[in-house]
């Protein structure tokens, strides 16, 4: 039997698609709020496919009209559960309708969406639930075990079925009943565009996670910019590979709706499944960190695409070899840079002059983080503070050499760290957000991240960027992925230690000959890197330790080399 | 000798491209301001061609870096001339660098740009200069005769040469000297995004023109929406056919810069010149009212385009025959709707189901004004007020039949009528902007303008839309353009009177046989229109009276028929 939305998901005929306006607003001022997007989509393209969740036991397919009704039901259900404006609603879910709904429905209840990474440990989840003061938890059935015992707040479990009998569907259904068909005009539009939208916690490899608060205004402007910069339009299909809980899916849960695009949600990063969709589902866009992109291009199913796909890449700079692998099969990389503290904030803008360059040379330019994004504002690289009281921001010269810290300000920057004024003040030193990312400023104004402060290798008194070393080593034809950390050296203070994963077809080639590979790689590095940056040690490993969001855990690698 | 920008137009090396930030702004709030666009373009694409003014005695070609410097020079020159924040700067110019500069440079001086239509009479210009209280006038050399005698404010004349010796160039040069290379950081960024950006006067066929004030916030959001909706990007080339003084060029002077597009300015609407650029200048976008579009497709040089061009059409609905003519040669119409009181506010969004329709049927859908634009908010059709005290807005049913008035609200709507609180209050009846445009609301939520209130023909007690009649008559193969007005009729009260311009190749066909054509057209109308809407009278005329912005002057036509 073909899929049918549950009866409470079907909107009444001629439903009004606007909320009750707050009193006292001037005619020419409408507070910016990404909730507007779904209402507009349901008005203009009610029957267009909005949200597809195909690779599960119970697939679902929602049009904008139906999805919009489900979002309204969610808002009423939350209000019925006692949620008041500003309350936090925690969501623990992989990519699925639940978390997609929540990006709109929680805002419709004027609540704040607290996204929790499904890859965290129960203790971390408990900390975040407690710190955020979440008043209700929406959780996917596979992640119920992450919840602490003795919870004092209500929990709604989704079986991810979209069918009657699923507790989440019952929750939505109750919302519809509770609304008594007051519909959208029964909900009030948030009058303050500075009101919080999301609360996302940093993955925090050191220290406790911090809660990043973003605003409705910032979310709206970031989403519009992402749709524009990635050229997502109504004929686009976006594949959800990046987890939506990761910094609010870089605002793409809203950008796609703004664009009237169709979204396909995948519960897990499953490369054969991704390729199935690339080849059969008219996918045009997806987001992913380089580590995921590496998995995509190296999957056995990878082959030249019939139509180009745009890949938005962030989280780390793509290497030349990755860019080349992507382009070869028709994936067009769009390199952007951001942190949990905001959506994409810079973009690598292609220059006409690059067309004449070799791929190798072009990739070096493409690996730069670039310039401020469409609706972003200032991106600067400034000297790090001399001491605790140093709040003056002084730009480093535009020489592509002097290392400083990236600072940003503007509408896309976070509002604050939740319930942590001290950390907020520190992060906002000098009236800008201090990212902690070390970078140089090139003469053309492009920012290039050299490293996180703690990842720099001080070798013979020289600062070696572990990222720059990784960029060079990654171009070796046998290397799939590489990470470099500092290791103590009696003579030079520190020296680079490289951890390498070989490509599938190269594993046999070097089997039992890792020493030979180590020599080969050092020889490969010699003409490409300054002496102090050449790896002193090379380890071939089957895998690299990663954070729950897919970043390589250099702290773990440092712990390993500390014992050597 | 190839063109060289004047020495003061060349920026210093490593110029800082940001203004002095106002104090006290939170890190996550940057007031929206379209001035940001040119600074960002000059930062990211300094050497890209930004502004081309080719078809004059002294052509000019500016890169973003040079243009940005000229804009800065203009800001300092205005400040040197005594311009303070909020002062009005009047500009009287055809499409040219002067008026393009002013869209950015006046905002950089925190002043308000008062755009004056070059097609007005001197008395109207005098009224606007006086009413706006403009403190300085920048005027193109061809329009100096429009200025009233005994002006008490300074006047800067541009010879539109871009060469030394031109008084406007001297003005810019003085600005550079005056700035003492303080550059952009010597100018303060406007802290209030609700601050006025433009002051444009309605063409006002009846009564005195009213001054429409738009805000920085509204201008920013409208420009971003236009770039997104029209898909203007860095590889785009925009041809300036629409006068920039017409409602601020529908915010495209900013949208194009936001997109990093190249702009080509044409002083006049010259069809052979337009075709020269269509065929040789890689044009991708332009704006124009239907009357201009008719001129374009009927020009002898018209032929199928090697690459498609997007035409943004507003001012009136395109007829089926126009849409077909445009599409045949590769021009893709984007039908939007707005007034001087805001930029484009609705758009006709193509529906998948239209693909199966005949052109004739599809055109009927495409002629609708459609749904709210990307960053616009509410568009409603409401019953007209019962009396002066009636401020309640009641939506008409979505039946595609009941006629009401279009009302709008949101960030793109004007802030107020300048120095006219009474007209502002009246226009903002019920907390929305009352457009005066009569429309129906279709079941799918699409708005379709039926007429301006005064253009409705009350024929035998029925309301006949002059627009609807024109739409049908325009499909006759011999008709280039048609306008229909009410004429008194002894029996029916009013009956439609059609004024027709024949296509060039049809003029001879009907020469001396206008009566026969009149019969033919009435017969053509009969199966297509209800009896009360069929034209009772048909006049073949060589031209139609038009307002300075190219709209047909129905008041003049009504005056003619009143005498018959």
From TrEMBL, chains A, B:
The keyword Cytoplasm does not apply. The keyword Lipid metabolism applies. Residues 469-551 form the AMP-binding enzyme C-terminal domain. Residues 40-418 form the AMP-dependent synthetase/ligase domain. GO terms for molecular function: ligase activity. Pfam families: AMP-binding, AMP-binding_C. One of its GO terms (biological process) is fatty acid metabolic process. It comes from the Eukaryota. Keywords: Fatty acid metabolism, Ligase, Lipid metabolism. PANTHER family: ACYL-ACTIVATING ENZYME (PTHR43859), BUTANOATE--COA LIGASE AAE1-RELATED (PTHR43859:SF4). Belongs to the ATP-dependent AMP-binding enzyme family. This is Acetyl-CoA synthetase-like protein.
């Amino acid at each position: 039997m073909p899929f049918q939305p549950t009866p409470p998901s079907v909107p009444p005929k001629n439903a009004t698609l606007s909320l009750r306006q707050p009193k006292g607003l001037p005619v020419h001022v409408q507070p910016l709020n990404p909730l507007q997007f779904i209402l507009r989509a349901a008005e203009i393209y009610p029957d267009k496919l909005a949200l597809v969740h195909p690779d599960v036991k119970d697939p679902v397919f929602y049009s904008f009209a139906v999805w919009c009704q489900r979002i309204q039901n969610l808002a009423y259900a939350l209000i019925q559960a006692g949620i008041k404006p500003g309350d936090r609603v925690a969501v623990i879910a992989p990519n699925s309708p639940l978390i997609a709904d929540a990006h709109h429905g929680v805002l419709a209840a004027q609540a704040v969406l607290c996204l929790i990474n499904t890859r965290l440990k129960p203790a971390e989840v408990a900390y975040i639930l407690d710190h955020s003061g979440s008043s209700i938890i929406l959780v996917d059935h596979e992640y119920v075990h992450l919840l602490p015992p003795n919870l004092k707040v209500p929990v709604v479990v989704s079986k991810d079925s979209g069918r009657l009998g699923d507790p989440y569907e019952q929750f939505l259904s109750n919302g519809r009943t509770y609304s008594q068909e007051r519909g959208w005009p029964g909900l009030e539009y948030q009058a303050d565009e500075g009101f919080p939208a999301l609360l996302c916690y940093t993955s925090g490899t050191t220290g406790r996670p911090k809660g990043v608060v973003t605003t409705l205004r910032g979310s709206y402007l970031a989403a519009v910019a992402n749709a524009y910069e990635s050229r997502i339009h109504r004929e686009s299909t976006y594949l959800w590979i990046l987890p939506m809980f990761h910094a609010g899916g870089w605002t793409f849960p809203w950008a796609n709706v703004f664009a009237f695009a169709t979204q396909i949600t995948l519960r897990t990063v499953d490369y054969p499944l991704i390729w199935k969709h690339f080849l059969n589902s008219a996918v045009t866009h997806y987001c992913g960190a380089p580590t995921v992109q590496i998995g995509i291009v190296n999957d056995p199913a990878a082959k030249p695409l019939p139509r180009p796909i745009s890949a938005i890449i962030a989280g780390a700079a793509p290497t030349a070899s990755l860019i080349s692998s992507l382009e070869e099969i028709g994936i067009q990389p769009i390199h952007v840079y951001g942190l949990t503290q905001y959506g994409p904030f810079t973009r690598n803008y292609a220059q006409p002059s690059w067309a004449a360059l070799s791929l190798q040379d072009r990739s070096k330019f493409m690996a730069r983080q670039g310039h401020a994004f469409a609706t972003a504002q200032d991106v600067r690289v400034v000297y790090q503070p001399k001491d605790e009281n140093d709040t003056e921001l002084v730009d480093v010269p535009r020489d592509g050499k002097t290392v400083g810290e990236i600072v940003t300000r503007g509408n896309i920057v976070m509002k604050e760290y939740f319930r942590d004024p001290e950390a907020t003040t520190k992060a906002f030193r000098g009236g800008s957000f201090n990212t902690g990312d070390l970078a140089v400023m090139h003469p053309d104004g492009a920012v290039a991240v050299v490293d996180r402060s703690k990842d720099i290798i001080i070798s013979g008194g020289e600062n070696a960027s572990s990222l720059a070393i990784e960029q060079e080593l990654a171009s070796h034809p046998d290397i799939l992925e590489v990470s470099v950390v500092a290791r103590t050296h009696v003579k030079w203070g520190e020296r680079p230690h490289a951890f390498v994963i070989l490509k599938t077809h190269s594993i046999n080639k070097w089997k039992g000959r890792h020493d030979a590979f180590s020599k080969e790689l050092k020889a490969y590095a010699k003409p490409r890197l300054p002496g102090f940056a050449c790896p002193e040690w090379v380890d071939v490993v089957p895998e690299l330790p990663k954070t729950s969001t897919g970043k390589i855990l250099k702290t773990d690698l440092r712990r390993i080399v500390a014992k050597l």
